[in-house]
Design brief:
By secondary structure, the protein is an alpha/beta fold. The chain has one domain: Spore Coat Polysaccharide Biosynthesis Protein SpsA, Chain A (Alpha-Beta Complex), CATH 3.90.550. It is 42% helix and 15% strand. It has 9 helices and 7 strands; from the N terminus they run E-H-E-H-E-H-E-H-E-H-E-H-H-E-H-H. A 7-stranded mixed beta sheet has the order 3-2-1-4-6-5-7, with helices on both faces. Helix 3 packs across helix 6 and helix 5 runs parallel beside helix 9. The longest helix is centred in the middle third of the chain and has 18 residues. The radius of gyration is 17 Å and the shape is globular. The N and C termini lie far apart (40 Å).
């Protein structure tokens, strides 16, 4: 049953996934109920103990499961999904989301609607509130520092630079496959390249989900991965490293 409208053939969904739980199945089913007719899931080298969610969603007519035989990283999974989408679809754009419980169906819908309704083809950013009392301090401080660094280094003013919930217009999907990075640094490079390409940003308010059971399966290591990302940002800002990409 379609709830509150249909996104058939207008916006696609891309979910990179590594060793998922039933949260992935629940998310895909929820998106299907809302009317999304094209959901692309990338199995990024999950182990044999986590195949059940992929087996379940692969039976859905509106869901395509792509497989990396070995784990290659979130960035690589996103690029695999982007390339498949660009070569096989022609919709308005694609929304990327995480399948670990941090992104709600309602918020994915908000980003999809922003893609549909925008006239200037922006990069849609699902923005969380890091001043919310339920957000762990390490996440709140880390994201606020990251936002400050983006503003000072690249003149990018975003309240949430680490969100995985993003909407990319069709015309920018192919260029995004040439941006460097195979792991979490890819999402950082994506923002930097969007700024360099003069792609406008559109921030959409989303729920801040930081319950323990919704984050225990996240593969992002706040301290270790943040250090890598900040180091990369500095190298790019000093023009020592190239984030790649071309329009």
């Amino acid at each position: 049953m379609v709830k509150n409208g249909s996104f058939t053939n207008t916006v696609s969904i891309l979910i990179p996934s590594l060793n998922p739980t039933d949260k992935l199945t629940n998310l895909v089913n929820g998106l299907s109920d809302f009317g999304f007719s094209d959901i692309i899931v990338v199995n990024d080298g999950s182990d044999a103990n986590h195949t059940a969610p992929f087996d379940s969603i692969s039976k859905l007519e509106n869901c395509t499961v792509l497989v990396h035989p070995e784990n290659r990283g979130k960035g690589a999974a996103l690029k695999t999904g982007f390339l498949y989408y660009y070569n096989n679809r022609s919709s308005i754009g694609i929304v990327t989301a995480d399948g670990d419980g941090q992104h709600l169906v309602e918020d994915i819908v908000k980003c999809a609607r922003a893609l549909e309704e925008s006239e200037n083809s922006p990069l849609v950013i699902g923005t969380r509130d890091f001043y919310h009392p339920d957000v762990p301090k390490r996440n709140s401080i880390g994201n606020r520092v990251s936002s400050l660094a983006f503003r000072l280094m690249f003149d990018i003013s975003l309240r949430d630079t680490q969100t995985g919930l993003r909407g990319i217009p069709y015309s920018f999907v192919s260029p995004m496959t040439s941006v460097k990075g195979d792991r979490f640094e890819y999402e950082t490079n994506m923002l930097i390249k969007a700024k360099q390409w003069d792609i406008p940003f559109c921030e959409v308010e989303i729920e801040t989900v930081y319950e323990e059971d919704s984050n225990e399966h996240s593969h992002f290591k706040p301290l270790k991965d943040s250090v890598k990302i900040f180091k990369q940002m500095l190298l790019i800002a000093l023009k020592i490293q190239d984030p790649g990409g071309h329009l």
